[in-house]
Amino acid sequence: MRAMKRVVAGLVVGAAVLSGAAATAQPARPLVILHTTQGDIVLQLDADHAPITTCNFLRYVEDGRYAGGSFFRTVVAETNDNPNPIDVIQAATTAGSDDPGLGPIPLERTRDTGLRHSAGSISMARDGPDTATSSFFIVVKDTPALDFGGARNPDGQGFAAFGSVLSGMEIVEAIQTAPATDEQLAEPVVIGAATLAGARPAVCDR
């Protein structure tokens, strides 16, 4: 446990250094640690470019709503029966991907945020625009079809990317290639807890 705390502390410090954090610089971006049955995945959130989506995600983290949830879905482009195939793994709370949760949020389009669905990006699952609640996914390979103007969703509005995997990408890749039927993992990877490391973004307190 002490070793894990040192690793997390090192990641926080490292993120601050990489962000150029100093007396006159912006605060380091918040980290969220997903403690899964396959190991820890550390996410770095981007509240600067996607504040609505980041703060929404943190509400679920701080309320403990991802505890007991799981990565339940894997999509592999090579076997994805879609004209715009994707490579992602999807997670949800114990209430599932249709969890009404804390209510839907406005869609922060990549056109406006400047973020992209590149390998390691985290993003919110949704049906129509402005319907995302708690279910999220991690992109395994660059997938521009998920960006604004992409055709993965027929409405062309894309999905809301809001951060990226800082460490644990090997776990993400292992989950994606685990046995599955019709995109449903044979053994969902349980999220024991999701915890915030570092400061909560000031924008989330407004």
Automatic annotation (TrEMBL):
The catalytic activity of this protein is classed by the Enzyme Commission as 5.2.1.8
Q: Which InterPro entries match?
A: Cyclophilin-like_dom_sf, Cyclophilin-type_PPIase_dom, E_coli_cyclophilin_A-like
The alphabetical list of record keywords is: Isomerase, Rotamase, Signal
| Top enzyme category | isomerase
Signal peptide (UniProt feature, chain positions): 1-25
Q: Which CDD domains match?
A: cyclophilin
Taking every annotated instance into account, which residue ranges of this chain make up the domain PPIase cyclophilin-type?
Answer: 28-196
What SUPFAM superfamilies does the annotation carry?
Cyclophilin-like
Output the Gene Ontology terms for molecular function. Answer: peptidyl-prolyl cis-trans isomerase activity
Task: Look up the domain of life of the source.
Answer: Bacteria
* Record keyword Cytoplasm present: no
- Please state what the protein is called: peptidylprolyl isomerase
Q: What is the source species?
A: Brevundimonas staleyi
